[in-house]
Amino acid sequence: MTATSTSATVLGLGRMGSAIAGLFLEGGRTVTVWNRSDGKAAELVTAGAVEASSVAEAVAASPFVLTMLFDAEAVLATLKQAGPALKDKTVLNLSTGRPDEARAIGAYVEEQGGRYLDGGVFGVPQTIGTKESLTIYSGSPDAKAQHADLIALLGSTKYLGADHGLGSLNDMAVLGGMYGLFAGFFQAVAMVATEGATAGEFTKELLLPWLRETVELLPALAEEIDAGDFPVSFSDLDVNQAGLDNILKTSRDQGASTELLEPLARLFAAQAEKGHGKSGFTRVIEELR
């Protein structure tokens, strides 16, 4: 098959990979697909895709290769099956991984004469290709410019710079914020469950309305962090430390574990011990940096 500027290869046909391949087909691209296990490509082939019998064949078919595999280890192992076929190709890896892994994969692709982009998708297969889905990525500026039309088919996109690791760093950071939210959610419902409250009613009637209002404060708190000034816009660190201590004591008294919030309490305490109790509570970021 002859590679053209309108062709794309997708390696990995899980739910997201299949959705992206279908999106490229709908966008009028010639699409080649490959999956490690058999049986995943039938629907896409019916829609017009070409199924390659090997990774090397799939990579050779298109100038643009998108990988959506289980993890970064699987991506590197798969791309090594293509080896020299990566010459003059652009690889966009959207599989979940760390910055160090992205840089290692990028180095391998470049050693083979290719160009590399790496990132992540904030969305689900049902929203890919719409404004509700955001793809962040980083890597080769030339590759980004050459394949901007293909990448734009993914929906909302944000390019973060030439460093191969920036896409996955920001991906991990956003997910870190998400898991922090989950930690607070788990702590809250565990506390009220000690008196028989249901998680559903408590979350819907009390927790969610408060969290929605709190999330709206994050841009203002981010400005304080960027300024490095830490004014007391809402309440100082001493007040927040006392409040968190009360939450921990209440949890213990109710028989609920405090292990999710104890690390934050230690950060508050460390800043207070350094004499910053009257600063804005956002100063806790200094303990992390």
Instruction: Report the CATH C-level class of the largest domain.
Output: Alpha Beta
The main β sheet shows up as: 8 strands, mixed
Number of strands: 8
Mean pLDDT: 96
| Assembly form of the protein | single chain
Order of strands across the biggest sheet? Answer: 3-2-1-4-5-6-7-8
| Rg over C-alpha atoms, rounded to the nearest angstrom | 24 Å
In short:
With 289 residues, the protein is of the alpha/beta class. Helix content is 50%, strand content 13%.
Description:
- The chain has 13 helices and eight strands.
- The protein has helices at 15-26, 42-46, 55-60, 72-80, 99-111, 141-146, 148-152, 166-193, 199-215, 218-227, 237-254, 262-273, 285-288, and strands at 7-11, 30-34, 50-51, 64-67, 90-93, 115-122, 134-139, 156-159.
- Strands 3-2-1-4-5-6-7-8 form an eight-stranded mixed beta sheet, with helices on both faces.
- Strand 4 (64-67), helix 4 and strand 5 form a beta-alpha-beta unit.
- Helix 4 packs parallel to helix 5 and helix 11 (237-254) runs antiparallel to helix 12.
- It starts with 6 loop residues before the first strand and ends with a helix.
